[in-house]
Amino acid sequence: MEGDTSVYQAFKLWLAGYVPLERNTLHYLVGAVLLAGAVIWSRRQLRSAPFLAALAVSLVLGVAMELADRRDDIASLGRWRWQSSLADIWRTIAFPLAGVLLLWWARGRSGGTRK
Q1: Handedness of CA 33, 34, 40, 45 (dihedral sign)
Q2: 1 in any annotated domain
Q3: Which residue range is the domain that position 100 belongs to?
Q4: Do 67 and 86 meet the contact criterion of CB atoms below 8 Å apart?
Q5: Can you give the pLDDT at residue 3?
Q6: Is residue 2 part of a domain?
Q7: Tens digit of pLDDT per residue, the chain (115 long)?
Q8: Whose CB among 11, 35, 40, 88 lies 3.0–4.6 Å from 95's, allowing a Cys bridge?
Q9: Is residue 115 part of a domain?
Q10: What is the DSSP letter of 22?
Q11: Of 65, 63, 51, which Cα lies nearest the Cα of 105?
């Protein structure tokens, strides 16, 4: 590990060596895994709690990852690349947010009750 590389950045570099995906794709993958977990947890019912939990966890993870990136950006570049951080947070929450919106849309079409 280089002198300017944080443990978090070293982990990301290590992970990139084993997962042959672009860095931005990994953000989408985190959200997709959380959405899949919500679908499994939901058990074919139109329940909001699993999908809202997946959205909340994706938001917390996205913000936490970007706070670590912010610290590393400032240390290595002297400034925070906030536009990139916002885009990464969006990438992390995209699938869970889509799941929540689709759930609400499906409930409205089926006349389901909120739980």
Answers
A1: negative
A2: no
A3: 7-110
A4: no
A5: 54
A6: no
A7: 455 678 888 888 888 788 888 878 889 999 999 999 999 998 878 789 999 999 999 999 999 999 999 998 898 899 999 999 999 999 999 999 999 999 999 888 776 555 5
A8: 35
A9: no
A10: -
A11: 51
Tell me, what's the pLDDT at 28? 94
Long-range contacts from 24-32, C-beta under 8 angstroms, 24+ separation? 24/87, 24/88, 24/91, 27/62, 27/88, 27/91, 27/92, 28/91, 28/92, 28/94, 28/95, 30/58, 30/61, 30/62, 30/92, 31/58, 31/91, 31/92, 31/93, 31/94, 31/95, 31/96, 32/95
Query: CA 30, CA 16: separation in Å to the nearest integer?
Result: 14
What is the distance in angstroms between the CA of the first residue and the CA of the last residue of the chain?
48
Return the number of other C-beta atoms located less than 10 Å from residue 27's C-beta: 24
Instruction: Report if residue 61 sits inside a domain.
Output: yes
Rounded CA-CA distance 94/35 in Å is 10
Instruction: Look at the chain and report how many structural domains it folds into.
Output: 1
Token pair in block for residue 15:
């992970």
In this prediction, residue 22 carries a pLDDT of 84
